[in-house]
């Protein structure tokens, strides 16, 4: 075949020209002379193809990846070996070169390219949101019909912090820019709705109670008609605490344990255990606090009657004997709670 470029007739042809003329113009890889990478100076995440990646990776690795991503290899190349080198880093500029060896139409060739990688320090959207105090959710920590105790606030702070640390591996907006300490409870401002919801669930898990979400429209984008919502999530923990006495479906129950979705207690008349769903919290009436339990003395007993002293006026009161008091003796101390003018003995 005849090469129109060099006139030779005895060479392998690539399309219309000979291999030598083809290789004169051919480049195995394409690589820009300069690549810019944007890195968040706070969290080290970087901007790639318009998206911020959340990985926290070392600077050299960022440079290598930027080179790799920008190399385009021609289809004709086979068995290529690409060697990336950082020659030197001056400030935010890395001087790099790329060596390639490969085979093109049976001929082994090599080439080198220079490239500068510029690392631009900036602030990613998540970090700038955090810096500006941006939040999507407010978690309101409240107690039903009572004040929250200092130790409950301390515990709640701990639960919120622990939850946000756990969330931060998957959510960059898992932060709390502000805690508003109001008389009725704390308002925890949370960066994202997702993490705010988790915070509310963790509080409920710790204290029991009822969660209610209410979205509030903050502003409306006139051009799209889309609203910006913030979600207020209230966590209302029960009025009653462990060992308190409550009335539920006409039974007086002493609370033994409180969990996320229910609480367990025993009917003080029958000693029967009850598991009451937390969602029925509003049907529950707190009748006596645990610290209102009194102590008295047994003054006589028979198989059917147990007689005690009423601690308020020292009058003798006959009460029905129950199995659980059979082992008590005259003169023993016994606990009682008075509810609606009735005395209940406690085991
Ligand atoms: Zn030629
Ligand atoms: Zn960042």
Strand order of the largest sheet: 6-5-4-10-9-8
Q: Give the terminus-to-terminus CA distance.
A: 110 Å
Question: Structurally, how many domains make up the residues?
Answer: 4
State the share of residues found in helices, binned by percent. Answer: 10-25%
Radius of gyration: 38 Å
**Strand residues, percent:** over 45%
What's the order of the H and E elements?
A: EEHEEEEHEEEEHEHEEHEEEEEEEEEEEE
Helix/strand structural class: alpha+beta
Helix count equals 5
Bound molecules: zinc ion
Descriptive account of the structure:
There is one protein chain. The chain has 347 residues and is α+β, with helices and mostly antiparallel strands. It has four domains: 17-125, no CATH class; 133-237; 245-290; 293-346, Nucleic acid-binding proteins (OB fold (Dihydrolipoamide Acetyltransferase, E2P)), CATH 2.40.50. It is 17% helix and 46% strand. Helix 4 packs across helix 5. The longest helix has 18 residues, at 150-167. The radius of gyration is 38 Å and the shape is rod-shaped. The termini are far apart. Bound molecules: zinc ion (2 copies). Residues 3, 5-6, 8, 17-18, 20-21 line the site of one zinc ion.
